[in-house]
What does this fold into?
Amino acid sequence: MKLPEWLKRIFGFLAVIIALFISWSCAYWLTGYVYGRFDVVPHEFIRQVSNSLLGFFIFGCGVYLITRIPWVRARQEKFLHPLINAMKMMAEGNFNIDLSFYTQQMGGGRNEHPYSRIVESITEMAEKLGKMEEMRQEFISNVSHEIQSPLTSIMGFAHALKNENLGHDERKHYLDIIETESIRLSRLSDNLLKLTSLESEHPPFELKEYRLDHQIRRIILANEPQWSEKEINMEIDLEHLSITADQDLMDQVWINLIHNSIKFTPEKGTIAVEAFKKEDDLLIVEIKDTGIGMNQEALLHIFERFYKADQSRHRKYGGSGLGLPIVKKIIDLHNGSIHVESEPGKGTKVTVELKPRQLSI
Ligand SMILES: Nc1ncnc2c1ncn2[C@@H]1O[C@H](COP(=O)(O)OP(=O)(O)OP(=O)(O)O)[C@@H](O)[C@H]1O
Ligand SMILES: [Mg+2]
It folds into this structure.
């Protein structure tokens, strides 16, 4: 029969009172016997102190002896065993632990049992560590995959170049591929380093006041070879805007967003970049393209690391799916927000909202 928790507590309390009563009685009789035997009459204060000390001592010995009883030890061990086992499993990297034994023992649900908090915390910790481990594995597998495909191309074409019968044009074509794939690898490592530094406890963050419109214009112009090669019509409408932000990090935001628009917009398409101030001291930058667009499902994932909306056509566009996660991280650091609207085949509109002034992080 299982006793309710409150009844167990009352019994426990009574047991302690009885044990204290017995210990102090023993101490009283023992000291009385010793004083009688040696015929001494100590001062009342000495009597009280020696009684208390002996009482505590007897109580301590009693508790110690009880914990030595094999039945009590077995019960304690049986109770602690799953907990110790769970800790061992976690130390070995296995976070799939099952502590349902305690839920049964404690009568299920949340209760006041002193162990219930510990069990809850350990279960929560195991769940969080398990999720982190899953993310770590996924990250490693993504990185390996991203490294493997350009490496395979490089190895294949380097091997093909050994063939002495290759014509000049073929040789040049293979070398171009090797160069492109090497640039891809280098960008991947660069982006990984950027993301790691942004996710560190103290990311680089240096605030300074500068002209946001100048920054965006400079980046659009720096990318002119790419958009003019595709004969993209670039429409620029930038108001005079000042911002206090980390200029290098914000460079990265506009570079990544403009690169995406250029990359995913077919020849003779249009990209419109607008920057303006909204009445309540909010700076808005809109980058709108008439590119391939994305469906609603893709929009839910674009800020996840390594996500690419169109896997089948992705080889054509290149990239590792780290651009937007980096953008999001930088905008979050600036307490801003980013919003993407898109329709397949019609185009994409990215809206970034930023506060003109930042508080240091
Ligand atoms: N302007 C856009 N038009 C259409 N699709 C886009 C656009 N911007 C992003 N996407 C989709 O979102 C995905 C994630 O973008 P992200 O910038 O993170 O990665 P990437 O451009 O593929 O690679 P990277 O930026 O690392 O070179 C892209 O692969 C693409 O499918
Ligand atoms: Mg990108």
Notes: Residues 5-129 form one domain. The radius of gyration is 36 Å. The first strand starts at residue 208 and ends at 211. The pocket of adenosine-5'-triphosphate (ligand 1) is lined by residues 191, 256, 260-261, 264, 289, 291-294, 302, 307-310, 319-324, 348 (CB under 6 Å).
